[in-house]
């Protein structure tokens, strides 16, 4: 559904949210290991997200990546749009460039409400949801991530 870059970005930001809850700052190495990503790849993603204000970072011996309170309440839809653009919410499910309301593909009218449901879900879900899930131990992201 998402590009590999977007998947890694989401996993990294969720990992960061769950690990830096108490003000802890995480290094690229810690995040990359935690989500099973190559360090150089996740470094580039995180630097871009930091420049755009989705996450925060500080340099130095006690530096690293972290989230402030405003970043924790931002919808994950915004991160998706930053990385992959708006296509998941607007493109044809069959990948047809000419699919429109006036010239629909065979699945257009069936998929349109599904696309809207996905958009609304991702707009409602914030990083705080993942922090709460960790506290309640109600969900997991992958068996490769160790949150303890």
TrEMBL record:
InterPro entries: Tscrpt_reg_Rrf2, WH-like_DNA-bd_sf, WH_DNA-bd_sf. It comes from the Bacteria. GO terms for molecular function: DNA-binding transcription factor activity. Pfam families: Rrf2 (PF02082). GO terms for cellular component: cytosol. SUPFAM superfamilies: Winged helix' DNA-binding domain (SSF46785). Coiled coil: none annotated. This is Rrf2 family protein.
